[in-house]
Amino acid sequence: MQPQLSLGLAQARHEELLDQSSRLRRAAGWRRLRREAAPPIFWQGLTLRLATSADRSALARLAELDDTTAPAEPVLLGVMLQRPVAALSLRDGRVIADPFSRTAELVELLRLRARQLSRA
User: Fold this and answer.
1) What is the bridge-based pairing of β-strands 75-80 and 83-89?
2) Shortest CA distance to 81 belongs to which of 46, 38, 109, 116?
3) What is the pLDDT of residues 48-84, one digit of tens each?
4) Of 31, 63, 108, 117, whose CB neighbour count within 10 A is largest?
5) How far apart (Å, rounded) are the C-alpha atoms in residues 39 and 41?
6) How many CB atoms lie within 10 A of CB 84?
7) Is the pTM of this model over 0.90?
8) How far is 114 from 89, CA to CA, in rounded Å?
9) In this structure, what CATH number is given to the domain that contains residue 86?
10) Comparing C-alpha atoms, which of 82, 80, 85, 81 is closest to residue 96?
11) Rounded CA separation 23/16 (Å)
């Protein structure tokens, strides 16, 4: 095959692929625009509350998962979908969390709430 012919075929194929990808991007963008934005599942069912005596077993489970001891009371508890996944001691600020759940943002919320409670 002649080099000029190969170059022409390669350029034509390149243009076809660029055109095809551009059409696909436009179509995907249109679908994205029409979709309603839903809140992430992570934040649905989130509760921050003070732990009670009924939460001692949940705190013990969290401490065991985190390979530490339960935090000193009073404790602020982070609950996702009715399951305690993080706890913060209001006495010393120590945190325990479920290492198998996404808790980094939740721990920050617990710290923010603890600061609000300490000002009141």
Assistant:
1) antiparallel
2) 46
3) 999 999 999 999 999 999 999 999 999 999 999 899 9
4) 63
5) 6
6) 22
7) no
8) 9
9) 3.40.630.30
10) 85
11) 11
In tens, the pLDDT along 23-47 reads 877 776 655 555 555 555 556 788 9
Same domain, 32 and 50: no
Q: How far apart are CA 104 and CA 18, in angstroms?
A: 41
Burial group, residue 88, by CB count within 10 angstroms (0-12, 13-18, 19+): buried
Which structure tokens are listed for 19? 């055109």
Residue found under tokens 């600061």: 115
pLDDT higher at 14 or 109: 109
CA dist 68 and 87 (Å) reads 12
Which residue range forms the structural domain that includes residue 6? 1-37
Nearest to 100 by CA among 82, 77, 84: 84
For residue range 84-118, what is the model confidence (pLDDT) as tens digits? 999 999 999 999 999 998 889 999 999 999 999 98
